[in-house]
Amino acid sequence: MEPPPERPRDCPSVADTAAEFLSLIGLKELERCLFAETLAVVALGASPRDKAQGQWWMAAQWAPYQQEGAPVQSCVLVQTRFRGKQNGVPASSSLKAYVTWQLETLEQEEQECLELTPHPTEKRTHIVSHEHGMTVTRTLQEGGAEPQCHSFSYGRARLRARLLEGASLLLLRVLARRHTMPPGLVFPAINSEGDLCTFSYSALGIQRQAVGSAETEVFVIRRAVRASTGAPSVWHGSFLPSGHLAQLMQIGSPVLMVLQDESILSKSGRFEPQLPFPKEPLDWEEDMELYSYFLDRKEELQLSHAAYLQQHPEVRALLSDFLQALLHQQPHDTIAFAAEFFAHQRPIGSPFASTGAASPLPSSSAGPPPANSK
């Protein structure tokens, strides 16, 4: 039985211990945790070879991040996506988080969708860090009703060593590669609803587990999310030595995520090259937001190009001269001819009508003269 939930509070000892633990994670150690992986969503108790009911994937990679008025900084972009069913209802969720290599979250957005007919539901939680702390914005959209938004903030003093979901997923990979962790590892945190909570981690030891038709050793980590109210959410993750997941399950859920592709295991128990980041078809012309952005950008570029040509009429004259020279000489190597043409700032020869300048024909022909030349 799970212990009763504890009311989250900013206990200095918890924050201090968590901050010290995070400070010991090295940059190179974190870089080994930057990869993509894909798991199949299957029914609990199903055979490893049963048909998948959905997919879960996660990717972590370096990416630039910039807030308005601030310089660009390099951080880790963590992304996850789930597609499957919840109690028979098609569901999806996604996460996108920008995290520093010290596991401090700069910005994170989580989205959950239930395709209920005729009233689909969508929840979003957006969290962004700023100089005064963090601001949380929760949005609920039910069917065609107006979205309901609620925003609140946390001061900087309450955020020391506080983990968010994207940073927690990276930390799990670090712990998995270490194959060890101190007992009673607890971090102050913010959950998917934007509420203060704690994340606790404990090792369940080495176990044997199926990967497709093969079997291998995995390191199992238990993570519990405890808020001030309600029962804790508990997850069990089974990790391969490289930090890749072999299985992920939430206690009480009818589905679990499993690695079905045994080909990533080598004979020595190590791993083959990473799974490629999955690509999904995108019909951008059917996406109203993307199509609207395309039209706006197209019009912006057309106006910009027209303005530049109006300010620099010599561009049209220069291109006209080049085409005349090209058609007159008819060189075999047009690239070499163009390079020599534009390298001559003051060509010699007869004037051309377009610019009134001297002929831009190169002094040495780039190819044999045309047939009608004398």
What key phrases describe this protein's structure?
disordered C terminus, membrane, 36% strand, 374 residues, alpha+beta, 14-stranded antiparallel β-sheet, DD_CATIP, 6 helices, CATIP_N
Description:
It is a single chain. The chain has a domain at about 15-260. The N and C termini lie far apart (about 100 Å). A hairpin with a 7-residue loop joins strand 2 and strand 3. About 20% of the residues lie in helices and about 35% in strands. Strands 8-7-6-5-4-3-2-1-14-13-12-11-10-9 form a 14-stranded antiparallel sheet. It is elongated, with a radius of gyration of 30 Å. It contains six helices and 14 strands. By secondary structure, it is an alpha+beta fold. This is Ciliogenesis-associated TTC17-interacting protein.
The shape is elongated
Q: What is the helix tally?
A: 6
> Helix content range of the residues, please?
10-25%
Pairing-aware structural class of the strands and helices? alpha+beta
What do the pLDDT scores average to? Answer: 83
Q: Got a strand count?
A: 14
Largest sheet: 14 strands, antiparallel
Give the C-alpha Rg: 30 Å
InterPro entries: CATIP_N (IPR048777), DD_CATIP (IPR047501)
Keywords: Cell membrane, Cilium biogenesis/degradation, Cytoplasm, Cytoskeleton, Membrane, Nucleus
Main location: membrane
Subcellular location: Cell membrane; Cytoplasm, Cytoskeleton; Nucleus
